[in-house]
Every structure is written in C-alpha cells, then in structure tokens.
Specification:
12 strands; globular; 12 helices; single chain; alpha/beta
C-alpha cells in the first residue's frame, strides 16, 4: 500500500473513532444505542472520504432508483443474497471501507445490514445513519433524484409534507364509500394474501409498474377522482409520492400505517 493510501486509511480510521466516541449516546440517532457494536460515520465525515470508500444503499431497488447518493451501489438488506453479494463486494475491494445507508435517523436498515455483515465475518462495514434525506438536502450535487443530478432541493418531499397526504384507516374506508375514488393496492406480491381489503372496489398494481400506475393516474385526473393508495406498513408510499407528483396526479391520499394499521383499526372497531 503506498503512502497516500496509508494516509487515507489512517484518516478514515480516525474519523470513525471520533464519530463512535463523541456520538455514542445520542437520542437523535437511536440506532447508535440499540446497536452499540456497530461503528457509524457522520454525514460530514462521510462526505470527506466518499471517494475513497464503497457506499452501499441497503434499501429496496425502488427507493434507490427514486433518490440515492450519487456513487452508491444498491444491495437491499432484504435480499436473500445480501450476505453473498456483500462478501463478493468485500473480496473485490479488500482495502476499502464499506459504508451502508438507508432512509434516515430512525431507519435501522443500515445497522441491520452492518450487523449481518459482522456475523458473516465481513470486515470494515460501517453505518451511515443520517440517511439519504439529510444527504440529499446537504449535498445535492452528490445526489440523484429520479435520474437527475444535481438534485433540486425544492423537489425533495419533506416528511412533514408527506404526512399531509396520510389519512387514518377509518377515514380511508369512509372515502371509499363516496364512490368518487380509485383505490390502489401497491403491495409487493409476497406481502399480499389471497383476500383484498376492499373486495370489488380496488385495483392491484405494483409500485414499480409504470404502465399500470400511469393508467390509473390518467383515469383519476380525467374523471376528477381521488386516488386512495395503500401498502403494507405505510412506508413504500412515501417513495411512490415522487412518481405521482412527477406524473401530475391531481388528488391522492395514502392510508396511514398501511394494511398493518388497518387491521389494528378493525380490531379496535369490532373488539376482536
């Protein structure tokens, strides 16, 4: 290893050591206390060394394609081949740290990914736990939104704005009764059971099915109807919102908490 590589390796190690010691107990980052054995790196420190490490987005392919760190690879932690793919990545990049990231400060996927790697004996895997949202807002030139870089900060949908499109399951159910809506189930195939939540009143379309989504967006706009959309736990729809906005959807709402929250609502309503 030449002198410049040695200096960079030393710098990275120092930054990680400082990050771990200073921020070990930080309520803003719950993962740091929940996963104390996993090293982490701050947003500023990662930006300093971004060209000398391997950055891996461990979210779903759909999330990665929507908004990502510019240089990031995508290896979803939910994939059955996650460990195998990370082992290959380590074998191909023996001298570089691997930084894993997910959505934000309360998202635990980066820590879970690093823990999986640790258990598999894959060394030097570090969590960047501030996530993609903070990164895109802080470093738009090093981010990609819907294939475009640099990112226009005005097009980043804040968590607060996203929440204004959420309605509770009871309200969602009542709106279906008005008839002036189009209901979409956008869950992944493995999340669906054989029974529809709203039999005869909904349509099933995958979240990455552009043709299907375009059809229902156009229909809702032409007929002045509201799209009522739900997923499994209310997280996928946050990324679908970028597509809806990009396609000019006029009126839409998401079920807060998705199917999981709907079943909880039914339990409370009927006292099962």
């Amino acid at each position: 290893m030449n002198a410049s590589k040695l200096r960079m390796t030393y710098l990275i190690s120092i930054l990680l050591l400082i990050s771990s010691s200073i921020f070990a107990k930080d309520n803003e980052f719950p993962g740091r206390e929940k996963y104390p054995s996993i090293p982490f790196i701050t947003i500023a420190d990662l930006h300093k060394i971004k060209d000398n490490v391997i950055i891996v987005d461990v979210r779903s392919a759909y999330e990665h394609q929507t908004l990502r760190i510019k240089s990031a690879l995508n290896i979803p932690v939910s994939s059955q081949k996650f460990t195998d793919n990370m082992e290959k990545l380590r074998a191909d990049n023996k001298d570089k740290k691997i930084i894993v990231y997910c959505n934000g400060k309360t998202c635990m996927k980066s820590y879970k990914a690093a823990l999986k790697c640790k258990k598999a004996g894959i060394k030097d895997v570090i969590s960047y736990d501030a996530g993609i949202m903070d990164w895109a807002n802080t470093y738009p030139n090093d981010s990609v939104l819907l294939g475009v870089s640099p990112v226009d900060r005005n097009k980043i949908i804040s968590k607060q704005l996203f929440k204004t499109y959420l309605i509770n399951p009871g309200h969602f159910e009542n709106k279906i009764g008005t008839g002036n809506v189009i209901v979409l189930d956008v869950r992944d195939p493995f999340q669906r059971d054989s029974t529809a939540l709203f039999h005869g009143k909904e349509h099933r379309v995958f979240i990455n099915d552009a043709t299907g989504l375009d059809k229902y967006i156009a229909k809702a706009n032409n007929e002045n109807k509201t799209l009522l959309i739900y997923d499994e736990v209310g997280k996928q729809v946050r990324w679908l919102q970028y597509y809806l906005e990009g396609k000019g959807a006029k009126s839409y709402s998401f079920m807060k908490g998705g199917v999981k929250n709907y079943y909880k609502y039914l339990d409370e309503k009927y006292k099962f």
